[in-house]
């Protein structure tokens, strides 16, 4: 399988795009074609174990890792020890409502991002070893991505992680989860600023091509194709767990921010999985809902993005959305580029009434949004009616999913984090603290290891250079 950029450049094979962020032309990596599985082929996947299913779903997109090695990578990644059960992503019905929770958050950091990030950890290690390379991952996080990346890269020889986070602005649990790591290859950097400042620092370092090349700077952000691909697997898994007759439809509802998770669902649908509606759930930051309701997409400036009680969805620019528009345009790179230049320049792009709108409608996407009050009410109600505590992001999904539930068609809501990770909001909703997995007992009391950094890219570069010199000396 060859990959191309959404802006037209040819990019190479899977391992070529795995380690890189944006394509050189500013676009995102996409497979040249998307293989479609027939009903008989789908039926053969029904009873596979998670790693075997992952192999069958991902294999067509990965032509440059030998079968044995890829199987081994997936076996190593999707273990009951890491994800709490051999199902990896168990499906739980909410009573007889026809709503289901697909549990994606039983991994090391209690959010769905572990599922793809754990794969990336093993896949990076494999490719770097094969090519005798090293990489220094530089990223910015508002909470979940950073911890998932750090726990996935822990102790990996050829990888260092430099993760910027806005000092004092994550949930107490999230801060403690990251800053309590005391590992030679993990560098937490608490920046004097907000999340956008962290992201700008990463951009500034990446803009320095000389520094970037000299220090092998890489990324694992949400546009990483390996993450999208690994996420497609659990849509298959969730669908098969319903035990529907062959070909019967199911709907999915996905709490969304950067459009990475739900885009993976769209990939599964394009591969032939009988998904009817793909419901995008937004919080108060409703750029995606605006598009699917009114046909207009535009980026919200940072000052318009609200700080909400489902913070991992506080995003004004859905970085994976370009992939969707690229497919909607009929893989027309020129059209995609034109749209994206408009969006980047602050102009809205409206697709209603154009040749493209019927493709949007046909793609099965629906959407909705939730407010703080609706989020709290949903957490309370699902607890009362089904005895099940959910986190604020999952609550956004359940709230929207309930509204768009079709009679007789199951609606699978993706559980994107465990309530323990956002206990302040859960406490506000139900007046008690959620259970916390034992390994996190007393987390907040542990020692913290984070460097403090002013909002200054030169200071960041100096910190990276110093840390790498120290590591090299320590290694030898
Ligand atoms: C990252 C995240 C989301 C949003 O996922 P996208 O792939 O960015 O759309 C939703 N909920 C939680 C808990 C997250 O960590």
From TrEMBL:
InterPro entries named in the record: Thr_synth_N (IPR029144), Thr_synth_N_sf (IPR037158), Thr_synthase-like (IPR004450), Threonine_Synthase (IPR051166), TrpB-like_PALP (IPR001926), TrpB-like_PALP_sf (IPR036052)
Cofactor(s) the protein requires to work: pyridoxal 5'-phosphate
Pfam families (alphabetical): PALP, THR4_C, Thr_synth_N
Record-annotated Tryptophan synthase beta chain-like PALP domain positions: 89-316
GO MF term set: threonine synthase activity
SUPFAM superfamilies reported for this sequence: Tryptophan synthase beta subunit-like PLP-dependent enzymes (SSF53686)
Cytoplasm keyword on record: no
Class of this enzyme: lyase
UniProt keywords, alphabetically: Lyase, Pyridoxal phosphate
Keyword Lyase: yes
Residues in Threonine synthase N-terminal domain copies: 2-78
Listed Gene3D superfamilies: 3.40.50.1100, Threonine synthase, N-terminal domain
EC assignment: 4.2.3.1
Entry's family note: Belongs to the threonine synthase family.
Designated name of the protein: Threonine synthase
Organism: Deinococcus lacus
């Amino acid at each position: 399988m060859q990959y191309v950029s959404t802006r037209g450049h040819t990019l190479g094979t899977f391992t070529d795009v795995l380690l890189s962020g944006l394509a050189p032309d500013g676009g995102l990596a996409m497979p040249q074609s998307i293989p479609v599985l027939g009903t008989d082929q789908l039926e053969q996947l029904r009873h596979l174990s998670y790693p075997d299913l992952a192999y069958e779903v991902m294999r067509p997109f990965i032509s440059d890792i030998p079968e044995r090695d890829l199987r081994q990578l997936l076996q190593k990644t999707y273990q009951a020890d890491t994800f709490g059960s051999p199902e990896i992503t168990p499906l739980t019905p909410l009573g007889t409502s026809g709503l289901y929770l697909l549990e994606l958050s039983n991994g090391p950091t209690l959010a769905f991002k572990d599922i793809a990030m754990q794969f990336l950890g093993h896949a990076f290690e494999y490719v770097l070893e094969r090519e005798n390379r090293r990489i220094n991952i530089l990223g910015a996080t508002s909470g979940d991505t950073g911890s998932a990346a750090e726990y996935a890269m822990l102790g990996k020889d050829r990888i260092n992680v430099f993760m910027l986070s806005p000092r004092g602005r994550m949930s107490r649990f999230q801060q403690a989860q990251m800053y309590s790591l005391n590992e030679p290859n993990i560098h937490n950097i608490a920046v004097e600023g907000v999340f956008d400042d962290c992201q700008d620092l990463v951009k500034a370092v990446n803009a320095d091509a000389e520094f970037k090349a000299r220090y092998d700077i890489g990324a694992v952000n949400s546009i990483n194709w390996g993450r999208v691909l690994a996420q497609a697997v659990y849509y298959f898994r969730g669908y098969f767990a319903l035990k529907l007759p062959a070909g019967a439809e199911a709907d999915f509802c996905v709490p969304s921010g950067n459009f990475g998770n739900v885009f993976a669902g769209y990939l599964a649908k394009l591969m032939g999985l009988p998904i009817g509606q793909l419901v995008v759930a937004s919080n108060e930051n409703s750029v995606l809902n605006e598009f699917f309701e009114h046909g207009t997409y535009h980026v919200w400036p940072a000052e318009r993005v609200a700080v909400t009680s489902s913070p991992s969805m506080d995003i004004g620019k859905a970085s994976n959305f370009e992939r969707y528009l690229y497919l909607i345009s009929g893989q027309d790179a020129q059209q995609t580029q034109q749209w994206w230049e408009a969006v980047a320049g602050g102009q809205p792009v409206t697709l209603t009434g154009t040749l493209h709108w019927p493709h949007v409608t046909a793609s099965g996407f629906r959407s909705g949004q939730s407010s703080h009050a609706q989020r709290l009410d949903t957490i309370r109600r699902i607890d009362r009616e089904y005895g099940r505590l959910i986190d604020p992001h999952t609550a956004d999904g359940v709230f929207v999913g309930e509204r768009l539930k079709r009679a007789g068609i199951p609606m699978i809501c993706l559980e994107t984090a465990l309530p323990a990770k956002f206990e302040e909001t859960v406490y506000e909703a139900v007046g008690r603290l959620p259970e916390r997995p034992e390994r996190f007992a007393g987390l907040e009391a542990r020692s913290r290891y984070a460097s403090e950094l002013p909002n200054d890219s030169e200071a960041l570069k100096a910190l990276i250079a110093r840390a790498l010199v120290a590591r090299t000396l320590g290694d030898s």
